Amino acid sequence: MKLAPHDLSICREIHAGLVSKERNSINYLFLEPVDPIYFPTYPSIVKHPMDLRTLKENIENDVYTEKEEFYADAKLIFDNAVLFNKDREESGFVVDLARSMSKAFERVRKSAEKKAARLAAGSGGGSKKASKEGEKKKEGGEKKKKINIKLKRQKSVGDVSKASSVESSSVGGEVSSTSDPKPAKKAKTKLKLKLSTGQSDAKKGDATKKKTKSTPKSSSQNSDAPQSEALKSDAPKLDHPKSDAAAVKVDVAPMNTLRQAQCVKILSSLKRRQPSACKWFHKPVTDPVIVKDYKEKISNPMDLSTISSKLDKNQYKTVCEFVQDLRLIAANCLQYNTTVDDSFRPVAVDFLTTAEDLCKFFIAKHEAPKTVYPSLLYCWADCIKAIDELINMTNPEDRLQTAWFFLHPVTYFCSGQYPEGYLEKVSKPIDLGSIVQHLTTGHYNSVGAFVADCRRVVENCNAYYAGDEEGVTLCEKANRLHGRMEKSLGQLFIFDQSDKGGKAKVKAASKYMVIKQPEKDFLRNILQELRAATYTDRSAKITEKATLHFEKPVDSEIFTDYPQYVETPMDLETVDRKIESGSYICPEDFEYDVSLIFKNCLDYNGPKKNMHMVTLGKHTAKIFRKLFAERMRGGPVAKRPSLPTLANRVAVAAPVGKTGAKKRAASPLLDERPTKRVSIKGPSRTAPKSVSIISSGKSAPSAKSVSSSGKLAVPKPGKLAKKISNSPSKIILANSSAPIPMHVAIASIKESYPGRRQNKDLEGWEAECLKFLRQLMKHPWVSAERPKYVFHVPVHILFPEIRDTYAAKIKQPMDLTTCEAKLLQGIYQDGEEFISDVALVFSNAIAFNKEGHEFGEAMSCAYYEASTHLLKYIRWLSLELLQSCLTNIDSPVVESGSASSWKLTIRNKEMARKEMELTVFNEMLDKTEPGDKYSWSEQECEKLLKALRHTSDIKHMSFFIQSTFPPDYTAYISKPIAWDRCQERLRHRKYNTIGEIVADLRLIFSNALKYNEGARHVSKISGMAYDSSIHMSRKLEAAIDKMLLAVGDRIGRERIDMITSQREMDAMERAEEDQRKRDWENENPGSTVEIKTKLRIVNQRSRSKTLTDFEFPFYDEEEEQGESHANSLQHVKGLYEKQREARANSQEIALSIGISVFRRLQERAAAKAYVDQMAYKAKMERLRIEKEQADAKKEDEAEKTPSIPKGAFVSSALKDSGRKQIKMLLQKPKRMKRKCVMLQF
Fold first, then answer.
1. Are 660 and 694 contacting, i.e. CB atoms less than 8 angstroms apart?
2. In the predicted model, what is the mean pLDDT of residues 1214-1220?
3. Is the dihedral of CA 708, 712, 716, 719 positive or negative?
4. SS (H, E, C) 481-505
5. CA gap 817, 835 in Å, rounded
6. What is the full DSSP assignment across 165-220?
7. Number of C-alpha atoms within 13 angstroms, CB side, residue 350?
8. Which of 148-157, 158-167, 1216-1225 is the least confident region?
9. Contact (Cβ atoms closer than 8 angstroms) between residue 98 and residue 81
10. Less Cβ crowding at N or C end of the chain, within 10 Å?
11. For residues 1104 and 1089, what is the distance between their CA atoms, to the nearest angstrom?
12. Where is average pLDDT lowest: 23-27, 145-149, 290-294, 588-592?
């Protein structure tokens, strides 16, 4: 006994799901049987082995009689894996894979069963239809039948049929009429359908009359049910157009490169033309609030990212599949969002309208006269409106949605299954959501089919609940829907059958959207801006043109495997030629070709792991997409305007005198980001009386608070407090002693220069100055929202308490924000004037904090030292970046240190370079152990090595990477070295300073120049090596320049940070001493003696006692005191005990103080010993380095004056007067081609 076809399809689909590519990461262990050779114990543990291949063979060989047997074997695969590997620690991952596959099996099984159930429900009357179609074919012969529909009005006395509905199947092959025979007293309109083949008049007369089928209607329960307006007695006779009766044949259009390109253009154009709609459909639905409900309602989710991914992976076999997926996005949105007046439904309609227009322009127009995908109804948008009217209906009694139970399949409301007996009563289940799905995916070929399905929703409800009291409510809602449905759908059906409908259909079929051909200058400008873009490699710190590698076609002779990865090559030269020839009909063609360049780059370099080219391709593609989108919108994206002025705020306020006037709505830009405005006019040394801060998130001040001069009138102090308490965000007058936030101060300074230009408008030396300023603002001490040191705004704004003191010392205040604003305003005449102002910022800080630095005040010391270093850093930076401003004039030369001013001369640049080299090259490397992570200084050396191994320099560096030299190389080069040897020495921590590795790298190319200089004109390889050495020497020097600036700055920062840390530690020690002093004073209240004084007092020896430890009283005192000798003695003894306790306490205090002093002395002695030891080690290391340098110098001198080669002894011997006779012998070696001349003296 075999499996039923229904069950067999389920089993095959489940197996296909388990072995699909999307599960390749978890199913690879279960595809084949387990080999007992590798696992000898497997047969003893697993009694019934099973795998996916055996499972497939069992299906094909009809082993299973029920699908439950297949389910059991499928589960057995994963149960066996768990059974065998659960006790094996090394195979724990197999258990995880088996459990994942078991869960995947359950998901695939449920999906396959649901799909099979839907197919079975949708093909309920399939056999009957097939038989009817077979009979029609027999009767009609070879030609197809034509259907003519005629409406006749007849009166009957007996059985009168209710109003019937015209049905037209989605394939146009069958038309049936339904009637419900029921005795009635009044005559009703009866619909008769006459079918004829249309071949001849005789055959028309012999056409077979179809009998109407009885269907339970809602009128059996409610005689007042509304009837169709189109089917009333006075309805006109309607004939379906002949084109509606037959299905439109769709030609198969396999997806190829050209069609795939058109699909990509559709996606890019759709995203650009409908950005507000597409933003909802970019990604899959993942909102945890609705995702569960979404999956239950939507069986096939789709989004734009999934479509793009399927296009890239070539998963579309035909163009029709792509178009259907694109439509499915809108269909899913309309099917899920079914609330009353849902705002997402118009979005989906707009999306689908634009998508259909683009598909007709890019696909249907090019494929004509073929039809490669089913077209939508010409009036599909009107059909959606009719459905929306039904969705927006509410019940009069509870105001709930009337169509709620008709929006989704019955299975949605019945736990995924049809109610008992439903399929027996309802032959074709349908719902409004499925109707929308069919409508938006081109399932309907005629309006009649759409109308019939809409009516069938009501008919199905009445058919199932006929005679059931529980379904009365649902039937009432269905009848209410039927009444609204007949009004809208009846009119739509009549329009479709009219001449206007025919004309509209023809017009919709021949209408194409118009896309203007782009101008050549427009496309040239985009390419020009793209070619101006640059790319900087983060690791190598090398900047190059972003389009350098995309200008010319790829040479297939060099890259022989390029055609295997890239099917359609493209480059910028080809794009230029196509622009000049006018080949681009629309902007999407141009966009596709340029994007194809970078896509080819990723396709070829991605599998080869050439990450530099991959990153470069992604970077340039991102620049192009942004640039193209800006130009298509009509220009670059508008930047945020400057903060609104007071005049602008007053302008949007209510007019004076109109108290009830309606104010203009505030700008959304201001509402989103409320910004405070501060009125500060330049870096004035005198403090303003008040600072006005106005919140832009509120309305403007009234006209009464603005004087005629345009300034705000300051209210009185009493009214001010009341105004602030009532509306604190409108006007706040700050006291002059209160500091202002830095971002507010920066904004106010920029406002005081209203003529500032955009950054991109600067050219020449101004652009270089702006680049210098941007680089300075990236400094760790100056950058970020909360910088370590503040130089961005005037000091008197952030620190009002020192305003007078600062004004007395600094006569010309300056800050970085003012420098930037003046540069953008165009105030500076040349670069030196700009650099002078920037240097003035830090010179002022040094001058102001000099006195505090001498006294050791913490903040003054920090700012003094930081400004000193930053002044030196900006001198280095300015001489490196402002190349166009350098001159050769004679001027004072700054050799080193922090000069307050300098000239931009070539001599100063040379001295700055020398100072940086002296600072960096002599810096000792912070060595780590081999194998550990590099320290920061070692990382800088590694970056220097990587800068030479850039991908763009592979052909140049191929001569210098490996330590393989020609046989005669050592005859010319005393110290051979290559890049790999430098890397090996760095890896083994052989370098002591940065200068050593720089010297070795320079030696690589100097050796190559020396060796190849003579043979470069003779040997082609020597010439290439010589040119490559020159090229790489320049690259090395450029990398060294960047490294010097970065490392020199970090060395200076670390030294200052170390000094600051030591100062903080000293301050903490002093604070601890003060705390100990306060603690001692608290323990001994009333004592004002210092600790050192107490120590001196305690150390002093008291007068020695000979007889007793205490003094006896004087016995010659008067007796009238009334004290006896015994009482006096007892009193004295009590005093003695108190003194002894006080002495003991003093000894304890002295002992503790002494111990602490001794420990401190001991720590100082240990610290001094450690310092001496480190100094001794540093001295020995320095001596060792000096000795190595001296030895190396001697070796270099010895190599520079080598001994005379053997071949040169001839001339020296000839010059010798007392030489002996020279005998010359010619001897031919065995294995050498040339003759060897041997000289003997």
1. no
2. 64
3. positive
4. HHHHHHHHHHHHHHHHHCHHHHHHH
5. 14
6. -EEE-TTSS-EEEB--EEE-SS-------B---SS-HHHHHTPPBPPPBP---GGG
7. 15
8. 158-167
9. yes
10. N
11. 25
12. 145-149
Structure tokens at 659: 């108290």
Let me know: does 150 contact 239? Beta carbons within 8 Å: yes
Mean pLDDT computed over 1099-1124: 41
- Tell me what pLDDT residue 237 has: 34
* DSSP structural state of residue 1222: P
Would you give the DSSP letter of residue 378? T
Where is 753: in which H helix or E strand?
none
The single-letter DSSP state of residue 608 is T
Q: Is residue 894 a contact partner of residue 879, using CB atoms and an 8 Å limit?
A: no
Phi, psi of 678, rounded to the nearest 5 degrees: -120, 130
The per-residue b/e assignment along 620-659, b for 16 or more CB within 10 angstroms, e otherwise, is: bbebbeebbbebbeeeeeeeeeebbebeebbeebbeeeee
Residues 659-685, mean pLDDT to the nearest whole number? 35
The rounded Cα 1003 to chain-centroid distance in angstroms is 43
Percent above pLDDT 90 for the chain: 7
Rg for the chain (alpha carbons), in Å? 47
Q: Are 959 and 1029 in contact (CB under 8 A)?
A: yes
Nearest to 1003 by CA among 1027, 971, 1045, 973: 973
The whole-angstrom separation of Cα 706 and Cα 688 is 19
Neighbours of 1037 (CB within 10 A): 11
CA–CA distance, 781 with 209 (Å, rounded to integer): 95
Count other Cβ atoms within 10 Å, centred on residue 836: 18
For residue range 1051-1073, what is the model confidence (pLDDT) as tens digits? Answer: 888 888 888 888 888 888 888 88
What is the number of other CB atoms lying within 10 angstroms of the CB of residue 747?
18
What confidence score (pLDDT) does residue 1213 get? Answer: 60
- Give CA–CA dist 1225/568, Å, rounded: 70
Largest CA distance in the chain: 172
| Per-residue pLDDT at 321 exceeds 50 | yes
Continuous segment of H or E residues that includes residue 1130: helix 1125-1200
Residue-wise DSSP of 863-884:
HHHHHHHHHHHHHHHHHHH-GG
* CA–CA dist 1173, 1170 (Å, integer): 5
- Taking the CA atoms of 884, 890, 896 and 900 in sequence, report the sign of the dihedral they define: negative
Q: Is the pTM of this model over 0.70?
A: no
Q: What is the mean pLDDT of residues 97-101?
A: 89
What pLDDT is attached to residue 633?
A: 78
Closest C-alpha to 505, from 147, 167, 244: 244
Distance CA 886, CA 908 (A): 9
Q: Please tell me the distance from the alpha carbon of residue 303 to that of residue 325, in angstroms, as a whole number.
A: 8
- Hey, which bits of 28-75 come out as E strands? none
Q: Say if residues 690 and 820 touch (Cβ distance below 8 Å).
A: no
Instruction: Taking each helix axis as running N to C, give the angle between helix 380-391 and helix 447-464, from 0 to 180 degrees, rounded to the nearest 10.
Output: 30
Distances (CA, A) of 1039 to 57, 1070, 1142: 65, 47, 75
